[in-house]
Write a structure and sequence with these properties.
108 residues; alpha/beta; Glutaredoxin; five-stranded mixed beta sheet; protein-disulfide reductase activity; transport; Thioredoxin-like_sf; Thioredoxin
Length: 108
Amino acid sequence: MAGDVIELGDAEFQREVLESKEPVLVDFTATWCPPCRVIAPVIDALATEYKGRMKMAKLNVDDHPATPEQYGIRAMPTLLFFKGGKVVKQVVGAVPRAKLEEAVRQVL
């Protein structure tokens, strides 16, 4: 994982995501999920490219089940975009980089 992607747990979610001054992309992921492994390098690259403008974070749904349950996460990977503490966009599945980058630009 790239150094620009934050590893989140349920405990840090409020501070790192809901109270963030900048928009946040949260990747709800699992170690057993092949599509999650496919999209991980894309998120790592975008985290570096958009550093300072959008925060990128990953939350392991198996290790931290409370937050995914609160947001109704049923498929991995699910990417939720937060702005001002609210979900403003959702992307499900290992989408192509261009589609994910378009979503990032829309949220910014």
